Amino acid sequence: MRLPNQDTKGICGMLIRRGWCVLAGLLLAVSCPLAAQSAAPSGDVSHYVLGPDDQIKIWALGIEEITDKPSRIDPSGDLDLPLIGKVHAGGLTVEQLKAQLVARFSREVLQPQVSIEIVDFGSQPVSVMGEVNHPGVLQLGGRKTLLEVVSMAQGLKDDAGPHIKISRQIGYGPVPLPTAKTDPTGQFSVAEVSVRDILAGVNPAENILILPHDTVTVPRAEVVYVMGQVHKPGEVPLKDNPSISVLQALASAEGLGTTPSPGNARIVRIVPGTLERKEILVNLTKIQAGKAEDIAMRPNDILVVPPNGPKKVAGRAAEAAIQAAIGAAIFRPL
User: Fold this and answer.
1) What is residue 109's predicted lDDT score, i.e. its pLDDT?
2) Which spans in 162-270 are helix H?
3) 277, 279, 287, 315: most buried by Cβ count inside 10 Å?
4) Cα(293)–Cα(312) distance, integer angstroms
């Protein structure tokens, strides 16, 4: 005959208090198989280090006061449990906390059986910002490498820059990378890795473990602008290249438009830190024919292809394109 759950718990408690732990365990498994299944934590979290805001479930066979209601570790790292009161869980692994609970519960029952499940990770936040598909504050939930953290943020966007930056509170030690340096405030260690190298596995040691409270930032790629008489005016990301040639930029803009004046194109280059600009005349006709140098464009350069027509009209159209590109460069988010 199957016993009701409540009666079973009471009998289990009695059996354990008398030292009949095996019989109690068999009785609980038969009467409540779902409870036995749910007592097994999902995944290997035995070495996870617990901390404030982690939420756990504790099962203690034969102790009716311990239910499967989740318990959250408070800001001091403590749990407040029936029968035994406060238990300090912060800084302990799941296995260490389990051992401590067994020791404490052994004062109440003979040979207590305890299992722990982590319901919600809350003590290992890491900020992933910039050009990833799902930026925000994520929970590490154990040991995670840089690539795993980027994957948790659903990967890089198409306009991601060539480097990933890692910022770490100095109290956790320096970031273990050759590029690491202390920021001017002295509070953070900052380093960066090459996106191309880390994705290609050129130096596996750069795929470092990310620690709680690290900030991982993926800046936007530098860009050049192609404006005027082209099929697709706008930004052209440089990605992991320091520069791009005029013909490459033109190809990214899907070529010349319907009424261009390719012999009168120009590159407008903004003087860094100012609104001043200088212009470099570019004869696209000669470059395409291989009769002139294919000039390298720098970040924020603007290639302007004016329309074919009266000089005054073409000049006004070109100036409008330049102003639009300058405005985009100034207000472009980082």
Assistant:
1) 82
2) 195-200, 246-252
3) 287
4) 28
For 22, residues 6+ apart whose C-beta sits below 8 A from its C-beta are none
H-type alpha helices, 173-281: 195-200, 246-252
Please tell me whether the overall predicted TM-score, pTM, comes out greater than 0.90 for this model.
Answer: no
Query: CA–CA distance from 218 to each of 70, 125, 161, 239 (Å)?
Result: 36, 17, 7, 12
DSSP 171: G
Q: Which domains are assigned to the chain?
A: 5-120 (3.30.1950.10), 125-218 (3.10.560.10), 223-331 (3.10.560.10)
Average pLDDT over all residues of the chain = 81
Q: State mean pLDDT over 316-322.
A: 60
What pLDDT sits at residue 326?
A: 58
**Nearby residues of 172 by Cβ (< 8 Å), 6 or more positions away:** 211, 213, 214
Q: Which of 305, 308, 304 is nearest to 277 (CA)?
A: 304
DSSP three-state, residue 226 = strand
Query: What is the distance between the alpha carbons of residues 237 and 240, in angstroms, rounded to a whole number?
Result: 9
Residue matched to tokens 């207000």? 331
Which of 35-39, 76-80, 89-93, 137-141 is the least confident region? 35-39
CA of 17: how far to CAs of 14, 20, 22, 191, in Å? 5, 8, 12, 57
Counting Cα atoms < 13 Å in the Cβ hemisphere of 50 gives 30
